[in-house]
Amino acid sequence: MTDTMVEARPSLLVERCNDSGELIGVVQLDQEYFGALVNVPLLHQVVTAQLAAKRAGTHSTKTRAEVSGGGAKPYRQKGTGRARQGTTRAPQFAGGGVAFGPKPRDYTQATPRKMVRQALRSALSDRALEGRVVLVDRWSYETPRTKQAVASLRALGIDGHVLLVMGSQDVLAERSFGNLPNVNIVEAGQLTAYDVVISDWVVFTDDTVPGQVTDAPPGAVAFSSARPTVSEDDDAAGDEGDLPAEEGEQAAVIEVAEPVDEDDEPADEEEEPAEGESNEDEVAEAAPKAVRTRKPKAETTAGADEEDDK
Questions:
Q1: Higher pLDDT, 233 or 193
Q2: Domains and CATH numbers, the chain
Q3: In CA terms, which of 137, 181, 221, 237 is 20 to 30 Å from 52?
């Protein structure tokens, strides 16, 4: 959301789906509610007033006159070298009264009705400009099931904080989405600008969407689509029976060597040395290594003398 007034697009097209994520058609939203100027200062003022109206205002503290006790003078007026004190219930003493503490009050702000309506239009228009408005024909839940509600959000491609605007007849859907912490459920008559601002996605039904919804011209494409789509490559891979790799696993890559013809010369041929050049390294490697032998130990002097006598 920008800091200034933003002009909406001339046509706001949204995909109309069922709760299973199947596309039914493309419709055009009402310009009065989804094509208004996004007045950020007005939106901030109204949201602040709505948050202030939620405050109970029951906080209260006691002053020095309301704290019990402290009727006697703590010590004499003069001669102690300390500052003169008349009571131990003064704010500077432990257990004393609170200076300038909060008292019960009403935090509500007077906000004209026209400002509240225009702020709601600005919030809805901002979500429509970002492609964050989803239209469902109806919630076809026969029994309240949280698992089915999660599957519906996944099929619609919705994540983050979601605002569901439901009617009085969507009791089963309200119970199905009630256990999800990231889903906020609001009745159509109780929708406020604050509910829209704190949500990433706004989901309407045919009965709860404000204004008049008309069918888009033939061949029209929605401004943004969050539904997960399957590409042609994925279809081809699915037909061949390939299984995608699980999360955290990498698909193995197999390299196949190309066949080599016998007639073809090997790529890595040893180059013959040029005339006059000797490859000393190769000769040194080819020559056998010299083997060191130990000399026999010198015989004792006594044995040498005996040989001489013989």
A1: 193
A2: 13-56+107-215 (3.40.1370.10)
A3: 181
Report how far residue 15's alpha carbon sits from residue 238's, in angstroms, rounded to the nearest whole number: 27
pTM of the model: 0.65
Show Cβ contacts of residue 281 under 8 Å, excluding neighbours closer than 6 positions.
none
Q: Single out the residue of 20, 291, 14, 298 nearest to residue 151, CA to CA.
A: 20
Token code pair at residue 246:
């699980």
State the Cα torsion 55-58-62-66 to the nearest 10°: 150
Q: What are the structure tokens assigned to 97, written together?
A: 């009264």
* Confidence grade of residue 250 (pLDDT, cut at 50, 70, 90): very low
| Residues 32/121, Cβ–Cβ less than 8 Å | yes
Order of strands across the sheet that contains 13-17:
183-187, 162-166, 201-205, 133-136, 13-17, 23-28, 214-215
- 10 Å CB burial of residue 59 (0-12, 13-18, 19+) is exposed
Distance of alpha carbon 173 from alpha carbon 19, whole angstroms: 10
Backbone phi and psi for residue 123, each to the nearest 5 degrees, phi listed first:
-65, -45
Per the model's pLDDT, the better-predicted residue between 6 and 215 turns out to be: 215
Q: Determine how β-strand 214-215 pairs with β-strand 162-166.
A: unpaired
Q: Are 31 and 15 in contact (CB under 8 A)?
A: no
Compute and round to an integer the Cα radius of gyration of the chain. 43
